[in-house]
Design a protein that fits this description.
510 residues; alpha/beta; Rossmann fold; 7-stranded mixed β-sheet; 16 helices; 31% helix; 25% strand; globular
Length: 510
């Protein structure tokens, strides 16, 4: 495979032919045909779930395609592992960095490198790392522990790790998602220098302004298919937005509640401010309200504060500033149990890590919010017979299809896992459901069932805050819609006044 690097230099360094990749119930890549020019900065643009990262995971040997072919320098290649892709001169900087915090920068860079034999010459390694750092303007500290670095510094280490392996094609997956403005500008400067040195860059993003800034060529993907590939100079943000979000959808039949304005207010938030995982401001002066029986849809591209909003409203993230008022009562203690006791149900995006305890069985997970109360709790004792009875009833009612009530939930399919979470959250005494990407990755049957559950809850007067990147879902279910962009919400609008194109523009900040 290594010989492919040294073939004659063709115009197109990389080509995908009819790439198909499926997961249960999902076609992630649907007959992808794409050519990448040598020395180009080629952007893959599309909303989350469009198939961008999946395609690049195939290129780098993390996934195997169901069918299709990959060509490097006009020669067909077989990529069975990340090692194969590195040998072909292909490297990827993932959105979540693959570094070992307890090792030094230099040690992280050389891990797995074919350059290293049985004896390591630290001086030579150090000099080569510094040389790459200076050549591409990537300031790093080779002797520093990775755990002590900022996010931007870790990204620079990842890039140098790939350059140290002499990659000719560098893939960056959402590289600016956690960077400061200055770090973004520095990254773009580095990418332009890499292009000048003859490297080919594949830039995965959903941020139009960045793509228009740094890319030479842009490919738009939507629902696993390529919509178009065109030169940056031949397009504009409005056209790209239309390509990203335009849909062929069924007619919306859901009617907005006529008496919504007269309904009782369930939730009021005023001036919310919260920090993200890296200490950045993720929510900035967020204010809104939800009425009884209302579904408020929050659209937006991932990383604009939706995750933090849901966590603040469920007690999982501290509030820096602002007020949360539920049924006229201001929340004073920002703990999950306080929100649960005030009637908040939470359907999180992370079904395994946040929504369930993976090694607990189905019964144990479905009663997590009721075991503290009668009839399961009797004094200081839990009635396990009653717990099993209630758990089985809930799992059957919500059609959670399992071989046994007592298998760990980590063995469940995505659809059954989500139905289990719904069974737990909807069966409790609740006034408001906070649902985050509730149907992501599910098949059509599971999606329809979950939508049915939401509409039934709405008829009972339950308010729903629906946070989703699926615009079809937002438009199908919501009474009012707002868009979250850079930690702020746009003014709410009635669903009938919203269009895919207008929402898409707001999601892009234009």
């Amino acid at each position: 495979m290594k010989g492919v690097r040294f073939l004659r230099k063709t115009k197109y360094i990389l080509e995908f032919k009819n790439i198909v990749k499926t997961f249960p119930g999902i076609v992630a890549n649907d007959h992808i045909n794409l050519k990448i020019k040598r020395g180009d900065i080629h952007a893959l643009l599309g909303e989350n779930g469009a198939g961008k990262t999946t395609l690049m995971n195939i290129l780098t040997g993390l996934y195997a395609p169901n069918s299709g072919e990959i060509y490097i320098n006009d020669k067909k290649v077989k990529i069975n592992s990340p090692k194969d892709s590195i040998n072909l001169g292909i490297g990827m900087v993932h959105q979540h960095y693959k570094l070992v915090d307890t090792l030094k920068v230099s040690e992280n860079i050389i891990i797995g490198s074919h350059k290293q034999k049985w004896m390591i010459n630290n001086r030579v390694i150090f000099d080569e790392i510094i040389s790459l750092s200076e050549k591409y303007g990537l300031a790093i500290r080779p002797n520093e522990l990775v755990g002590n670095l900022s996010v931007g510094e870790k990204q620079r280490v990842e890039i140098i790790k790939m350059l140290y392996r002499n990659v000719e094609i560098l893939v960056l997956d959402e590289p600016t998602s956690v960077l400061t403005l200055q770090e973004c500008q520095n990254l773009f400067k580095t990418l332009r220098e890499m292009k000048r040195q003859g490297k080919t860059i594949i830039f995965i993003s959903h941020k139009l302004n960045e793509v228009m800034d740094v890319a030479d060529t842009i490919t738009v993907l939507r629902q696993g298919k390529i919509v178009n590939t065109l030169a940056k100079v031949d397009t504009n943000p409005i056209e790209l937005t239309r390509m990203m979000f335009e849909r062929e959808t069924e007619t919306i039949t859901k009617n907005t509640l006529k008496d919504l304005q007269k309904a009782e207010t369930v939730l009021v938030v005023e001036g919310l401010k919260a920090l993200g995982d890296e200490g950045e401001i993720s929510l900035n002066d967020v204010s809104f309200s939800i009425k009884k029986g209302e579904i408020l849809g929050v659209a937006g591209v991932s990383g604009n504060g939706q995750k933090e909003l849901a966590e603040v409203l469920t007690g999982l993230r501290p509030l820096v500033k602002g007020k949360i008022i539920i049924q006229g009562k201001e929340i004073r203690e920002y703990k999950p149990i306080e929100f649960i006791n005030n009637g908040i149900s939470h359907i999180p995006a992370d079904r395994i890590g946040v929504g369930t305890i993976p090694d607990f069985n189905c019964i144990e997970n479905v009663i997590l919010k009721t075991y503290r109360k009668q009839p399961i709790k009797k004094g200081l004792i839990l009635d396990f017979k009653e717990a099993n009875k209630i758990g089985e009833q809930l799992l059957n009612k919500y059609d959670v299809r399992i071989s046994s009530y007592y298998i760990p939930v980590r063995l469940l399919s995505g659809g059954n896992l989500q139905k289990l979470i719904l069974a737990r959250e909807i069966s409790c005494n609740h006034q408001l459901i906070i649902a985050v990407h509730p149907t992501y990755g599910l098949d059509v049957s599971a999606v329809n069932m979950i939508h049915k559950f939401f509409l039934e809850e709405q008829k009972k007067g339950v308010a729903i805050l629906l946070i989703s990147e699926d615009l079809d879902e937002i438009l199908a279910l919501s009474d009012e819609i707002t868009v979250m962009y850079k930690g702020k919400l746009t003014p709410k609008q009635l669903r009938q006044k919203c269009s895919i194109e207008n929402i898409g523009r707001a999601m892009m900040g234009i």
